[in-house]
Amino acid sequence: MRNISELTVEEEGSVWEENWEQFRGVFLLLAWGLGLWGWYGFFHGRLGSAAFSIVLSLIFFALRWNASKAVRVSAESLWVGLLAAGSLFALYFYTALPSFYWGQDPSFWLAVHAGAVTEPIWSPLSYLIGEAVVFLFSSQVFSILPRLSAVVAAIALFVVAQELLAQFRSKSRANLIFVFFSCVVLGLSRPFWNAATMGLGLVSSLGLLLFLLFRHSLQLEKGYATVSYFLLGLLWSAHPMWGIVGLLFFLTGKPKAVEVRKNILPLFLGLSPYLWIVARREKFFPSWGGADPFIEAVKEGRQLWAGHFLNDWSWLGAVQAWGWEIAALLVWALAMALFNLLKGLEFPKRAVSMVDFWLWLLCGIGALFFYSNGTDHLGVTSLWFATGTVGFLAFSFDRRAGSVWGIDFKKVLEITSILGILIVGGLSWLPEQSYFRNQTFFPQQHALNLTRGLGSRTVLVCDDPFEFNGCLEALWMEPAGPTAFVLDKNNLDKRWYVAQWIDREPDFFFSTITGPTDLILKSVVLNNRDNWQIQWSRAELPKDWQEPSASRAVLTQLFQSEANPVDPSQFQYRYDLSSVTVNRPDLDSRSRRYLSRYTAGFKLMGDQLMTQQRYTEAIHAYDRAAKLDPLDQSAMAVLSQIYSQHNILEAAQLDYEAVVKSHPQQIDQVMKSLDEAQSRKDETKAADDLGQLVKLNTELAEAQYQLSKIYGQQGRTQEANALLEASVQVDPKQVEAQMALGHFLEKTGEWDKAEEAFRSVLTVDSQNKEAQVELWKLLNKPKS
Predict the structure, then answer these.
(1) Looking at the DSSP assignment, which residues form a beta bridge with residue 462?
(2) Rounded mean pLDDT of 687-698?
(3) Which DSSP letter does residue 137 get?
(4) Among the residues of 404-441, which ranges form H helices?
(5) pLDDT of res. 32
(6) Which of the 8 DSSP states describes residue 85?
(7) Per the omega criterion (within 30 degrees of 0), is the bond before 516 cis?
(8) Can you tell me whether residue 646 is helix, strand or coil?
(9) Which segments of 492-536 does DSSP mark as H helices, in order?
(10) Is the pLDDT of residue 200 over 60?
(11) What is the mean pLDDT of the chain?
């Protein structure tokens, strides 16, 4: 017979179950109410609050179906997971990128911030969660997404720790230490770190978290089948690749037809985030796929894949993206398994199931083929391949061979395995694996440079997917500015794309949409250049390009009406180059490619201005090209030739002196106009005045700097020094003037002021080697 205490415990348990069932009923009502209200608001344009409501609805559905049971938590494993996940989250938080970086990342930011349907493959669940978090933390709208990725990745690693320890036969101290260090090394690996420090990485980390919960839910008793179907739907909503992996794993369990029919509603509720695409089609201009994005994705599937492999994929890049850690863990796991198989008396015939092995291999292969050169991201399932590798290693560690040939291999392998994990973690800090990116702003700044100063009837044509999505994001970040349009040249032959343009701007004429996109663009320019300013984002026109003619505007080719011409030389003053990295060994390939665009563009601009005998603007262009790429001597050679010709130098001196005399008065006038516009709250006029003010200040600082060099050659030392100081005061970011001033002050013995000048250079460009050397020399001069 049972005693009274046992009966009391049983009764309390039944009361708790009854109360929990009532809570679950409330959860169901909340889930339906919030979901219906959220989707209604989302279809009516209330993105942030509606997304938050929808995410809450999905959470309440998960609670209703006991999704919390899908997390294995024990007293021993809890602290291991918290410690590993917490330390990695700190690293992710402080190394996360502050904004969109390159490749497809701008399209993710665009989808979250503006609700734009961007190029497949979609991840509507990630977009909804991103919009909900942005709504909650509106003051951090352009910095919260990478931190969200860090949070989700850290939670996923916590669950990984629980799953690893669950497969151990004992919770010994050695096993706990091994799992802790294994999770840390896994989190340090390049696939995980990339996923956890970029907004786009949310697609990978969220999918891994859902997949781990889904796998465990399938192992629970039949009462938890509903949550398994719900999680399977969410996996598809996280990414179709995650959905395929989840479906394959699900089908190996041979689900019964009755069970499928019974749980079809939870499955569709998990798929409901795809309503995001239905709600946002053609709501943002231009919207991918037009009125039928799903149909267009099927139609263009082969073309999208071909474009991916042709322009954004390489075997070498895909293999290198795994990093040294995963390669070392993979070799080590294989070696441990073989050693146990050959020497271990306790090792079973089959370490892992064939289903786990083939799904693990499929995830690795899929990750390779979905690799993107632009983002340095492997496919989303790379995280499961990396996790599975650590899982195989942990299995071999737990079932390692015992005493063989009189040697206690179990103890030896225990010590060497933990030391080996620490060594693998050290691989993460090799130069090629750096976790602290430098100059992360440059690709974003490139997009901002392209959109800076675009007028209301300007169309910017982009070939590069990053530039297209990045410029759309840059324009969205400043919605109060002039309305310009960004045209994707790669979609000019798509009816759904052109239809949106005709609907939005009926006076922008398309005479044909058949044939090569270059020919279509020619017809677009010829048909519209009288009424629109069209810029093509290229430093040079194609070699076989005949007509229409264009003017060089550094980063773009400018097509315009002869009746209302724009001076292309003014474009060189628009570009903010303060964040452009120069002569750095850690420059990524995309930044190098864009940097070469600036260098080539300024040189071509200089050539064009020299033929027009506009020497001052030409000097400025060549000087910028030379400073951007010191290894390219062609711009320096032209500058030397210019400075050796007395007539050219004299003409330039007169122009610079005119700018120095006239611009201060013009700046005062614009300042007064700006104050008046601000007092009238005329935002359009204030923006125009502010742009004019920036331009005049840039021109004045450049003229003062160039004139100081001319005066220096003429021996007018004091005047040259005064001009340098004035130039630095007008534009503190002008590194060349700061360096010249520092050298001048050093020669005249004013070491304290020279030190201040070199330090000012380092505040703008912390990696400037010349300033570092000069400052070091000054600090180590013997004191008199």
Answers:
(1) 488
(2) 73
(3) T
(4) 409-427
(5) 92
(6) H
(7) no
(8) helix
(9) 495-504, 517-528
(10) yes
(11) 81
- The H or E element that residue 635 is part of is helix 633-644
pLDDT at 461: 94
Which residue type occupies 546? Q
Block residue for tokens 């690799």: 371
Q: Are 629 and 582 in contact (CB under 8 A)?
A: yes
**C-beta atoms surrounding 705 within 10 Å:** 25
The DSSP line for 727-770 is: HHHH-TT-HHHHHHHHHHHHHTT-HHHHHHHHHHHHHH-TT-HH
pTM of this prediction exceeds 0.85: no
Tokens of 11: 């009764």
Answer yes or no: are the C-beta atoms of 266 and 117 closer than 8 Å: no
Tokens standing for residue 509: 């004429």
Angstrom distance (rounded) from CA 372 to CA 347? 40
Report the chain's C-alpha Rg in angstroms: 31
Instruction: Give the contacts of 538 (CB within 8 A, at least 6 positions apart).
Output: 463, 556, 557
The candidate with the shortest Cα–Cα distance to 449, out of 473, 474, 418, is 474
DSSP string for 565-585: ---GGGGGGT---TT---S-T
> Does residue 346 have a pLDDT over 50?
no
CA of 553: how far to CAs of 404, 447, 513, 571, in Å? 75, 15, 27, 6
Measure CA 652 to chain center.
43
CA distance 47 to 474: 19
**Strands 485-488 vs 407-408: parallel, antiparallel or unpaired:** unpaired
Bridge-based pairing of strands 556-559 and 407-408 is unpaired
- Asked if omega into 548 is within 30° of 0 (cis), the reply is yes
Say which DSSP state 378 is in: P
CA 199 to mean position of chain CA atoms: 6
Q: How far apart are the C-alpha atoms of 499 and 150, rounded to whole Å? A: 40
Closest-CA residue to 301 (of 119, 125, 466, 464): 119
Reading the block at residue 584, the tokens are 């750095």
Torsion, Cα of 638, 639, 640, 646 (10° steps):
110
CA–CA separation, 81 vs 165, rounded Å?
10
Q: Convert 115-147 to b/e letters by CB count within 10 Å (16 or more is b).
A: bbbbbbebbbbbbbbbbbbbbeeeeeeeebbbb
Residues present in the chain in total: 784
Give the per-residue pLDDT at 103: 45
CA 572 from chain centre, in angstroms, equals 27
Is-contact 92 196, C-beta < 8 A? yes
DSSP 256: -
| CA 279/CA 293 separation, integer angstroms | 11
Over residues 238-250, the mean pLDDT reads 93
Rounded to the nearest 10 degrees, what angle do helices 735-747 and 769-779 cross at? 30
For residue range 491-514, list pLDDT tens digits in order: 999 999 999 999 989 889 998 888
Q: Which string of b and e fits 479-512 if b means at least 16 CB within 10 Å?
A: eebbebbbbbbbbbbbebbbbbbeeeeeebeeee
